């Protein structure tokens, strides 16, 4: 375990965030778990060895948020300090590196009003607007990574007395921290992804067509200036793990129906077996066997959250898919299958994006929503065809 911890920590600090001249490091995580806190303590010590002299620990306070959301009214959320993330802007503006460590409490928010959940998430995003702007344009080093916790481990392996160690070792396998040289392993993967990115870009794809046996029958128009990308960008690996290749669509031109293939965990709540129907880009109909009110809150969180902002391709044989597990964690589950996202589009997926104003990017079809929620749609029988200048091409089977 000690060796795996050291390798994972070094992967995060030496390869993922690729910190710049700033010696500030912002670490966001959930403090309520002893073992995950121990891991963060070791990470901080290693960061100090690397001469970070300004390290800020931000408590996500999931349990506290649950208790507050059980009692608060929707009008009180905007001014509650627990949902005020201005400190993120302060550190972003001085060029800090951001390491966002994500754990899960499956079912924690099941008894919370979904409208309150959606509003709290929205307030958290708008109160760190400078951070989001710099993050999405890759002007600051950042990485979102998985952090195991005892509560999460017990939910996944309820009959295993060593459940935390089991989950940690499983995560280290999925992030390739158990290889001889994790940095080299990731460099090889990202090099291969870049080859695929260039191959996709060479086709000048204008539209994607999705079909599978669940009933998905969807067409998605791509922005004429869109390019494909992977999560290795500007020397960073912004998601750990990441096995996706993605781009941003024209949010106004999605039509048809898509069915989820895995549960969606959102702010501690679960949405399962759901579908979305689109017309001219917008969700016009939806349903879910579980969590339909949560889904409603996501779709209605702002003017553009009912439109797509991302399409992503993920191999069916990714290390996460091979576990045959649902982790109830978006970062892991989205890297087990192809996925889409409602909400914010990626400016960096637009060629020469620095030449355009925010208004021009919206006119080009880049979704300006304040929200971004990934959901999984990939199945073993999913086929994706691409409309190109030479006709249709099968790009995913």
Structure description:
The structure is a single chain. This protein is α+β, with helices and mostly antiparallel strands and 397 residues long. It has helices at 2-16, 34-49, 62-69, 74-77, 86-93, 114-126, 129-136, 150-156, 163-174, 182-202, 292-299, 330-333, 358-364, and strands at residues 24-29, 54-59, 97-102, 142-146, 207-211, 217-222, 229-230, 232-233, 236-237, 239-240, 244-247, 249-259, 264-266, 269-279, 282-290, 308-314, 339-343, 372-376, 383-388, 391-396. The longest helix is centred in the middle third of the chain and has 21 residues, at 182-202. The chain is globular, with a radius of gyration of 20 Å. The model has no long low-confidence stretch (mean pLDDT 90).
């Amino acid at each position: 375990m000690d060796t795996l911890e050291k390798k994972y920590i070094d992967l995060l600090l030496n390869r993922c965030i690729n910190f710049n001249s700033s010696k500030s490091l912002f670490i966001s995580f959930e403090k309520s778990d002893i073992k995950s806190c121990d891991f963060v303590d070791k990470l901080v010590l290693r960061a100090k060895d690397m001469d970070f002299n300004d390290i800020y620990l931000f408590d996500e306070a999931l349990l506290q948020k649950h208790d507050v959301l059980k009692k608060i009214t929707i009008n009180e959320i905007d001014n509650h300090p627990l949902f005020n993330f201005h400190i993120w802007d302060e550190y972003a503006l001085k060029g800090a590196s951001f390491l966002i460590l994500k754990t899960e409490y499956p079912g924690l928010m099941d008894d919370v009003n979904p409208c309150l959940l959606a509003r709290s998430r929205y307030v958290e995003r708008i109160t760190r607007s400078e951070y989001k702007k710099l993050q999405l344009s890759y002007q600051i080093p950042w990485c979102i990574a998985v952090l195991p916790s005892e509560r999460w481990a017990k939910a996944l392996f309820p009959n295993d007395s060593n459940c935390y160690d089991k989950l940690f070792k499983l995560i280290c396998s999925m992030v390739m921290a158990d290889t001889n040289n994790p940095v080299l392993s990731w460099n090889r993967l990202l090099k291969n992804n870049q080859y695929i990115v260039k191959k996709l870009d060479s086709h000048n794809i204008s539209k994607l067509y999705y079909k599978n046996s669940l009933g998905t029958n969807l067409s998605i128009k791509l922005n004429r200036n869109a390019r494909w990308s992977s999560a290795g960008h500007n020397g960073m690996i912004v998601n750990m793990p990441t096995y996706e290749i993605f781009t941003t669509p024209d949010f106004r031109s999605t039509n048809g129906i898509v069915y989820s293939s895995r549960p969606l965990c959102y702010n501690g709540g679960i949405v399962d077996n759901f579908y979305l129907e689109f017309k001219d880009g917008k969700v016009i109909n939806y349903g879910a066997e579980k969590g339909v009110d949560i889904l409603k809150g996501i779709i209605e969180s702002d003017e553009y959250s009912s439109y797509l902002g991302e399409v992503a391709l993920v191999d069916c044989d990714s290390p996460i898919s091979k576990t045959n597990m649902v982790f109830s964690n978006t970062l892991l589950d989205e890297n087990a299958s192809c996925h889409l996202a409602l909400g914010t589009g990626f400016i960096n997926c637009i060629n020469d994006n620095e030449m355009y104003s925010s208004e021009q990017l919206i006119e080009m079809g880049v979704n300006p929503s304040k929200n971004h929620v990934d959901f999984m749609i990939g199945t073993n029988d999913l086929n994706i065809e691409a409309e190109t200048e030479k006709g249709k091409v099968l790009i995913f089977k």
